[in-house]
Amino acid sequence: MAGGKGAGGFLKLAVVFLAILAIGIGVFKPLINAQRLGLDLKGGVHVLIQAQSTPDHAVTPDDMAALERVMRDRVDQLGIAEPVIQREGSDRLIIELAGVSNPEEAIKMIGKTAQLEFKTSDGQVVVSGKDLKDAKAIIDQQTREPQITLQFNAEGTKKFADVTKKLASSYPYGDPKRAIGIYLDQQLLTNPQVKEAIPNGQAIISGGFANFEEAANLAALLRGGALPVPVQIIERRTVGPTLGADSLAKSKTAIIVGLIAIALFMLLIYRLPGIVADFSLIVYGLIVMAVLWGLKATLTLPGIAGLLLSVGMAVDANIIIYERIKEELRNGKTLRAAIDAGFKRAFTTIFDSNATTVLAAIVLYFLGSGTVRGFAITLSLGIAASMFTAITLTRFLLHLVVGVPAFHNLWLFGVKEEQIPAAARGEI
Questions:
Q1: Strand partners, 182
Q2: Rounded to an integer, what distance in angstroms lies between the CA atom of residue 104 and that of residue 314?
Q3: pLDDT tens-digit map of 394-422
Q4: Residue-wise over 213-228: b if at least 16 C-beta within 10 A, else e?
Q5: Cα–Cα dist 384/215, whole Å
Q6: Could you tell me the mean pLDDT of each successive run of 10 residues in the chain, 428 residues long?
Q7: Are residues 310 and 278 in the same domain?
Q8: Pairing of strands 36-37, 298-299
Q9: Is 96 buried (19+), middle (13-18) or exposed (0-12) by CB count in 10 A?
């Protein structure tokens, strides 16, 4: 009967261990490859811009909020995934774009004011970028040249219709006064003649584009809107993909070496419970990577540092638990009772140590910025996952181990037989 229970317990333990191993092998690499990588790992552009006050207007918090919104719209038009756009101080904005194929063009787009104006020959502004509803780049089917089609909103449509009707009826075709100049940041793009009234709120910018990409980028700027205040790029840094790939390769190597060292340490020092801890770490890694992927978080080097630190803390939790278990065994408790008592006594210590670290991470998150926040998030996430695996999964696996009579030898738990009180030897 006992042999049957032992065989059943061993089979259950083997199935659980094999399932964890299979899931780890099958899922871990795809999860790693699916992670969004930050600027320092993927390469890209780091730009620091400063809003400029003018004699007539000082930069306000509302201006910075509008500036951040416009910049985010512009970056979205570039199709860049997970940009980092955040304020620094009262008048600066940090913009990090990972994986940019054309850094110079991206910086050029970021720095443009993009103030669009339609002016009559006497300099009167008829409509502006705030009246714009949409802008798209197209290829003219006849001339094969790139163009930008503009669509005004309701208010802009009415104003444009009124002025084109007035010009078409007041001046003969060819008269310079019949033209409407299209200006971008005070520079004339084109100065077309009004053939007839335009009631549909549509206009075309043609000529002067070197290629379709230039027209598409300008259309994206117009869709994003003009900057509320002038800006100056005070720092620009391009991280090449080679440097990013090198950082990523070194990070992967560090993770692999670190995990192998931890696994060997746990195996040599804690033997059978060490193996259990190693399997718990596999689940820990899967949980953290899955949550990061689910949150669409961007992984950076400081973020990886936070993960590695949380791995160390996960091992710390197991070490505290195992040392408590060994103490309980030396005090004469049975194996099952020692495991339960060890977890119960270790919980307070583990919770207190992790709580103080999470508190520090919260402070870093709210007082820090950029990659410091990434470090705080991954550290907190790793601690939460390590608490779960150490307190629940490790305990579950140890109870499965105890269900196998062949594993009742206390040497497997790092305790020598002579350290156990004589009255308690041989008990389970």
A1: 118, 190
A2: 44
A3: 999 998 988 888 888 888 887 776 656 65
A4: eebbbbbbbbbbbbbb
A5: 49
A6: 62 90 88 79 84 86 85 71 79 83 73 80 87 88 87 91 91 88 82 87 79 82 76 82 72 79 87 90 88 81 78 82 88 86 88 88 80 80 86 89 84 72 51
A7: yes
A8: parallel
A9: buried
Question: What confidence score (pLDDT) does residue 158 get?
Answer: 93
* CB-based burial, 358-389: b 16+ in 10 Å, e otherwise: beebeebbeeeebbebbbbbbbbbbbbbbbbb
Q: Which residues contact 125 (CB under 8 A, 6 or more apart)?
A: 117, 118, 119
- Assess whether 263 and 359 both reside in one domain: yes
Domain count, the chain: 3
Q: What pLDDT is stored for residue 18 in this prediction?
A: 93
d(CA 119, CA 145): 24
Q: Which bin fits 43, alpha (ψ -120 to 50), beta or left (φ > 0)?
A: left
Rounded Cα distance between 225 and 241, Å, is 30
Beta bridge partners of 239: 44
Regarding whether 208 and 173 lie in a shared domain, the answer is: yes
Q: What's this model's pTM, rounded to 2 decimal places?
A: 0.64
Does residue 212 share a domain with residue 265? no
Q: What is the pLDDT of residue 1?
A: 44
Q: What is the CATH number of the domain that holds 252?
A: 1.20.1640.10
Residues 69 and 105 both lie in one domain? yes
Q: Could you tell me if 215 and 146 are in contact, meaning their C-beta atoms sit under 8 angstroms apart?
A: yes
* Residues 408, 284 share a domain: yes
Of 226, 259, 281, which residue sits at a domain end? 226
Last residue of a domain, one of 237, 260, 277: 237
* Burial of 105 from C-beta contacts in 10 A (0-12 / 13-18 / 19+): middle
Same domain, yes or no: 179 and 257: no
Range of the domain at 76: 44-111+231-237
My answer on whether 285 and 349 are in the same domain is yes
State the pLDDT at residue 423: 45
Task: Write the DSSP string, 73-116.
Answer: HHHHHHT-SS-EEEEETTTEEEEEEET-S-HHHHHHHHH----E
